[in-house]
Design brief:
The chain is of the alpha/beta class. It has helices at residues 16-27, 39-48, 62-75, 100-128, 150-173, 203-216, 226-235, 237-244, and strands spanning 7-10, 31-36, 52-56, 81-84, 132-137, 177-183, 220-222. The protein binds NADP nicotinamide-adenine-dinucleotide phosphate.
Length: 248
Amino acid sequence: MNTTNNTVLVTGGSAGIGFELAALFAEKGNQVIITGRDEHRLKTAVARLKNTTGILSDVTDPAQVDELVTRINKDFPGLNIVVNNAGKAYYYKLGDEIDVAEKAAEEMQTNYLAPIRLTEKLLPLLKRQKEAAIVNVSSIVAFAPGRRLATYAASKAALHAYTRTLRLTLEKTAPNVRVFELMPPLVNTEFSKVIGGENGIPPRQVAEDLLKALAENNYEIHVGNTAYVYQLSLSSPAEALKLMNAAE
Ligand SMILES: NC(=O)c1ccc[n+]([C@@H]2O[C@H](COP(=O)([O-])OP(=O)(O)OC[C@H]3O[C@@H](n4cnc5c(N)ncnc54)[C@H](OP(=O)(O)O)[C@@H]3O)[C@@H](O)[C@H]2O)c1
């Protein structure tokens, strides 16, 4: 699909991967809208970006999502790309924690249920556009979980399954809306600090891979060494699991 002259919403666009996605979309001549929960962080990000509007909105709060969707329909009726990027992860070992179910619920709310809610609410608008896309940001751990990211990996595996079936469905019912899945490996952001994120790839590389994949209509985007782990997970799921847990 075309990667210029779009109107793009990036959830969680005030930092990390979302910020770099917003920056690259803006540089390529797209109108960009970013969201986040922290007003100062959002304003600071908007000041560093061109062609970008910031809207304070928590993806896990249905009322705030409704407000966001109303605002987009009113002020950005040409919206044609939605990037479900905002994410949440807890890093811990199963058995060490007494509130694992609460952590899992939070991860599911942010990583799985929020993209579904926003997608459902924006689909009528997307269907009206000549060409549109939904990009769900999952992770390498959707294929092979790391033992300290057990419930996070499960939430991304759920998002992966949903994304595949959404693509299958829309191919028949709304072929103008393409469904992409962006699967980064370890990326150097605030989010990944606790898991050695400084050894990860720069977020800019993730953004460049997304823009290239959009242009080529490559729907499953295996960024960096996600490509290798994905292939390994097909040929030997046990080896892929071992590789993802080699550090401990
Ligand atoms: N970094 C990695 O190694 C890595 C690897 C694979 C996949 N991913 C995925 O990539 C995505 C982005 O990760 P990142 O590393 O860029 O994270 P990050 O550096 O922590 O940035 C997260 C962004 O999302 C916003 N955000 C968080 N929760 C939100 C909520 N409930 N509603 C709205 N905005 C929210 C944050 O702003 P506020 O805090 O102000 O809301 C911030 O702008 C996530 O889905 C993550 O799972 C990351």
